[in-house]
Amino acid sequence: MSGRTAIVAGASGLVGGHCLRRLLASGLHEHVVAFVRGPLNVAPHKRLEQRTVDFERLGRMSAFPRVQDVFCCLGTTMKKAGSEAAFRKVDYEYVVRLAETSLRTGADHFYLVSAVGADPKSRVFYSRVKGEAEESIAKLGFAGLHIFRPSFLIGRRSEQRAGEAAGIAAARLFSIFLVGPARKYRPIKADTVARAMVVVARERPAGAHVYAADEMEGLATLL
């Protein structure tokens, strides 16, 4: 065990839940702090601390955990958010605020679940917000910034997203045709993304790195 401490933000989500379980199983961190809005449905673990967090007040949070690694799995959907402004608040403001606050209190590696196609210049609102978040965090100066860009995520969610199952089924059907540069659009298991994040956290390479589906699948085999 390294003696390091980690934050997992978005631990109640699909990737975040897998990431939390994989981190606890790996023994990579002496202490893992899950930022949650309510109690998680997970078994008690001696190295797990659940902290109820209001992301609106994150910068003023008392005794912000001093950690080395931050796993950011925050994210919502346009349907759930209800408006572009509400979506941006979660997928940009909360994400960047987490990065700024954790860096200020000593974190040096940030692991961000973004999305394929993220681009601050995109005409697609979703992709543009994801790209803007990546861009803002890259400017902060983490010793290591690790950006994971999955396409369709496969896994059992606590809530079913309308149309998502059909979208994944279609992507699986046509994934045989997604070759070369298009391979990044293939659906990927949420647990595969989580395993890749843990492997990267084990190695902690310096600099900024972006991981597409192929890289994540390869990394996941190392755990």
Strand order of the largest sheet: 3-2-1-4-5-6-9
Mean pLDDT score: 89
Instruction: Please give the oligomerization state of what you see.
Output: single chain
What portion of residues belong to β-strands? 15-25%
- Number of discrete helical segments: 7
Distance between the termini: 15 Å
The tally of domains stands at 1
The CATH superfamily bears the name NAD(P)-binding Rossmann-like Domain
Biggest sheet descriptor: 7 strands, parallel
Helix/strand/pairing category: alpha/beta
Helix and strand sequence: EHEEEHHEHEEHEHEH
Helix content: 25-40%
CATH class term: Alpha Beta
Gross geometry: globular
CATH architecture: 3-Layer(aba) Sandwich
Got a strand count?
Answer: 9
- Contiguous uncertain segments of 5+ residues: none
Textual characterization of the structure:
- The chain has a single domain, classed as 3-Layer(aba) Sandwich (Rossmann fold).
- The protein is 38% helix and 17% strand.
- Strands 3-2-1-4-5-6-9 form a seven-stranded parallel β-sheet, with helices on both faces. A two-stranded parallel ribbon has the order 7-8.
- It is built from seven helices and nine strands.
- With 223 residues, it is an alpha/beta fold.
What attributes does this structure have?
alpha/beta; 223 residues; 38% helix; Rossmann fold; two-stranded parallel ribbon
Topology (elements, then pairings):
Layout: E1 5-9, H1 14-26, E2 31-36, E3 48-52, E4 69-72, H2 78-81, H3 84-104, E5 109-113, H4 125-138, E6 144-148, E7 153-154, H5 164-174, E8 188-189, H6 190-203, E9 207-211, H7 213-220
Parallel strand pairs: 1-2, 1-4, 2-3, 4-5, 5-6, 6-9, 7-8
Helix pairs in contact: 1-6, 3-4, 6-7
